[in-house]
User: What shape does this take?
Amino acid sequence: MPTIIEIDGLCKTYKGNRQPALDHLTLNVDEGDSFGLLGPNGAGKTTLMNIMCGLSKADSGSVSICGLDTVSEIDKIKHLIGVVPQSLALYPMLSAVENLRVFGGIYGMERRKVAERSEELLNTFGLWEHRNKLADKYSGGMKRSLNLIVGLLNSPKILFLDEPTVGIDVQTRRAIIDYLKLINNQGTTLIYTSHYLSEAEELCNNVALIDKGRIICNGKPASLTLQHSCGSLEELFLKTTETAINNA
Ligand code: ADP
Assistant: This one.
């Protein structure tokens, strides 16, 4: 499969910090991948994700998506990507359908298309009957699902998900993972960060383990565990980073 994301020598140090959040990070993602960026808290995953989506700028290095530069050509990239941020990006005082209308407008989608897609996705995640409730009144799991629906609204070619299942019940988590597998099988490229390694093992065909802003190793989960004589990604992670990953 052709490369869809090229990350070349990314460096980023936040003001006031001595340690870089990203340290000459280079990585390629192939079209159709379900790619997991895995690492402990503070590893640099969100920083990398934000730079890839054009939400933050690197100090040096570059990212291209479908051959387009994420700094100078972000307007073209916006139509190709969906973003599901870790912190919920919803208007609490608007209902689910109103939220989706606002985000549809931001994406430049036709109103009819927004309505059709909203109905389809709200039904998929069991939220259709709650569509007129304020987002503020949703449970944690319902908010996470709506946050995901916003990212899926414009049927993106590439979907970025930053810890999409954090803090939710088992049923909602299952519904989200199964839907992500389905759209990945249908051709959507997924870039997913998590510290749930068993979830990553199930969802991702390729992973990169990140620590201190650097790639420790990357490849297929089964090859990586075999190569490092580990029984699971979690064991590999603990071995390579010496950091407990499920401490959040
Ligand atoms: P992760 O998503 O893997 O938890 P982050 O990308 O959030 O990691 O953070 C990487 C490093 O950058 C951490 O040391 C974190 O404290 C620091 N950092 C992240 N965001 C900021 C910020 N806005 N200002 C200062 N430091 C930050």
About this structure: The domain at 1-79+195-248 is CATH 3.40.50.300 (Rossmann fold). Residues 107 and 154 are 7 Å apart (CA to CA).
